[in-house]
Amino acid sequence: MTLNDTPDEAELCYPHLGNSSCRRIMRSHSVSVLLHITLSSISVLTVTLNLLVIISISHFRKLHTPTNFLLLSLAVSDFSVGFVWIFLILLIDGCWFLGADWCVFNTVLGSVVASASIGTVVLISVDRFVAVCDPMHYQTKVTKNRAKICIVLCWVGSILFHCLRLSNIVENPGHGMILFQMNLMCINHTNIHGGVIDLIFSFFIPVSIIVVLYVRVFMVAVSQAQAMRSHVTVVTLQSSLKVNRSELKAARALDVVVVVFLLCLTPFYFVSLTTGFGVKSVSSYIFVILLFFFNSLLNPVIYVFLYPWFRKCVKCVFSLQILKSGSSEANIL
């Protein structure tokens, strides 16, 4: 603030617009610096850790399974979110200085990668459902090619859905800079019809599928536990239980991924629903967006703690063993 600035002018993002300009979110200098350092660190970690997941699954052939291909898709979307964080850092003070075109790019990129993440988590839930509830036919029903096709359809569908939903601001970038009480704010604001469609296809339907599938998986797990306690001795049933126990153990990490994902996703759509798809408070809007995208950092952290093969892969990457001839054939499991 200069000596000639009034307090009101210092709070405006665009002082020359007067009262029509958006206002800065005023914070102390130390808090502002801490926020920028924290968010920048999250961005770097999100990109780095998810890049490690991408390299690991892509490089080692032993990891080329349908389930891991789904994790690879999730890692690609999470990796992209790392760059979305850069735009969120620029928006943290409530001001947007990059213009309408970059606002559109930020909006479309954030929407597409978020939708692809949601679709991939649905696919992971389906994968776990088949693995636990029908283990004898899992390998015939869930193949690598089918997993790849589903992933491609998920990404293509996400791109088409959001390009159509946001076609208005894509064709007219100025519409992406919404006017509510403030001006020149890059916040994705759609009409009530677009908001309802997004809520249905990006939240209610995917979450309903995930919940139904996991309730079914839980019921099967409970019935298997009861069968094991009753000392069932039929050989075929014992072999089935043995397969399912191994699948349940392998699914724990994915269960955690899905639960954490829902915890990070729900607040954003709850705020959107309760505010009528508008923006009542910039601070609350930014917070739920940050929480939503923070999930992209949590996923690889979950892998570190629950997947031994990922820890081995990280060691191989940092020790440069992956550069050795034939390293892709190593038994990393």
TrEMBL record:
InterPro entries: GPCR_Rhodpsn, GPCR_Rhodpsn_7TM, TAAR. Residues 49-303 form the G-protein coupled receptors family 1 profile domain. One of its GO terms (molecular function) is trace-amine receptor activity. Keywords: Cell membrane, G-protein coupled receptor, Membrane, Receptor, Transducer, Transmembrane, Transmembrane helix. The chain crosses the membrane at residues 33-57, 69-92, 104-126, 147-167, 199-222, 250-270, 282-306. The keyword tRNA processing does not apply. It is found in: Cell membrane. SUPFAM superfamilies: Family A G protein-coupled receptor-like. It holds the Pfam family 7tm_1. The keyword Cell membrane applies. It is a multi-pass membrane protein. Belongs to the G-protein coupled receptor 1 family. GO terms for cellular component: plasma membrane. This is G-protein coupled receptors family 1 profile domain-containing protein.
